[in-house]
Amino acid sequence: MGLIVLDLEWNQSSTGREPEVAKLPFEIIEIGAIKLNEEYEMVSEFSELIKPIVYPRLYHITSKIIHIQMDELSRGGKFTTISDKFKEWCGEDALMCTWGPSDITELQRNLKFFGKELLNDGPVRYIDVQKLYALSFDKDPHNRISLERAVDALGIEKDIPFHRAFGDAYYTAKIMTKIAKEHPEVLKFVSFDVTFPPKTKEDEVFIDFGTYSKQITHVFKNRESALTDKSVMSIVCTKCGKPIKKRIGWFSPNGKQFMAAGVCDVHGLIKNRIRIHKYDDDTVCVIKIVKPIENDGLIRLQEKSARAEELRRKRKEAEKKAKEFERKK
Questions:
Q1: Side-chain half-sphere of 184: how many Cα atoms within 13 Å?
Q2: CATH number, domain containing residue 88
Q3: Exposed, middle or buried by CB within 10 Å (0-12, 13-18, 19+), for 88?
Q4: Can you state the angle between helices 102-113 and 79-90, rounded to 10 degrees?
Q5: What is the DSSP track for 169-206?
Q6: Is 52 within the bounds of a domain?
Q7: 242 and 289 share a domain?
Q8: Same domain, 158 and 56
């Protein structure tokens, strides 16, 4: 399997009023990529400009950030042609590597918009080098720093410009090589883009990373049907997959994700977390993470649950007062 280190640049609407914005918020105008062999050596390069047709005027902030002018883009090829050329260059079973999650999402959106074959008709498995950098050198997967800051922190020579697709792919490849050589243990932590979810239960993604497990469910018709599904809302152990004794019931600290915890007789305290990913047609899929926690982790979760319950209580009181006020008017 080849590794393709990918970076994209894209343009967007200058007004936000075009009808295409909802389906294609960002139109790809440049693809840059590096191919790595099994020893993580750079063996091939790809760099192509794409002439924008959906948003033909270059957004002023885009132009300022990536240092590119419209006359240069006007000489680029069509997305349909360049994307075919890119996929042929990648070869079969290529695993994409990107700095952060956005590039795979936008590539999938552009492929669908322009009627081209998707990378995968469902979740796309890829390597988020930004996340692996955090795991390797910051020990915190949530600490997302810029590509240039990571290059500086690792002492990598800056010999070509940033903020162009090929340049950013080049530096991402340099970091990927360093991670692979110095921290190969983190390479198993692959990511999944869910621009297109699993269509059926048989297509669901389940992967055990050793320290935690991840499930990406099939598509549900709405949020309510997902949150009443037994396989989603069951509290299970990441080690044996069996239901566990509930210690903290499901609660939401922010309305975007839900958490619960329990204890397995064999494997101890376990935390379950789900995040709802919503699509334009109101369908959803669920990303569920199950991982062991220590007692102090359980205490922090209990504190979060208590704060969430207090906020819910205050919200209900405010709604009740608002209704009483309306009745008295």
A1: 4
A2: 3.30.420.10
A3: exposed
A4: 120
A5: HHHHHHHHHHHHHH-GGGTT--EEE-SS--SSGGG-EE
A6: yes
A7: yes
A8: yes
Q: Which amino acid is at 288?
A: K
Domain that holds residue 137: 3-186
Closest CA to 103 of 86, 91, 81: 86
- State whether the Cα torsion 105-110-113-117 is positive or negative: negative
Q: CA 205, 125, 286 angle in degrees (round to 5)?
A: 40
Q: Which residue has the tokens 């590539």?
A: 107
Number of residues that this document lists for the chain: 329
Q: Are 25 and 118 in contact (CB under 8 A)?
A: no
Are 162 and 21 in a shared domain? yes
Both tokens of 10, joined, read 């894209």
Residue 319 lies in a domain: no
167 and 243 housed in the same domain: no
Indicate the pLDDT class of residue 1, thresholds 50, 70 and 90: low
And the tokens for 273? 């977390």
Instruction: Please give the C-alpha separations between residue 288 and each of 160, 209, 223, 235, 275, in angstroms, as whole numbers.
Output: 40, 13, 14, 10, 7
pLDDT digits (tens, 9 = 90+) for 196-238: 999 999 999 999 998 899 999 999 999 999 999 998 999 888 8
Q: CA of 82: how far to CAs of 20, 31, 88, in Å?
A: 21, 8, 10
Question: Which residue's structure tokens are 């049907």?
Answer: 225
Q: What is the rounded distance in angstroms from the CA atom of residue 309 to the CA atom of residue 28?
A: 44
**Tens digit of pLDDT for each residue in 67-82?**
777 778 889 999 999 9
Strand order in the sheet with 3-12: 42-49, 26-36, 3-12, 95-98, 124-128, 191-193
Q: Does residue 141 carry a pLDDT above 80?
A: no
Write the DSSP assignment of 136-152 as a string of letters.
IIIS-TT----HHHHHH
Residues with Cβ within 8 Å of 24's Cβ and at least 6 positions away in sequence, in order, are 54, 109, 110, 113
Cα four-point dihedral sign 65, 70, 73, 79:
positive
Residue 329 lies in a domain: no
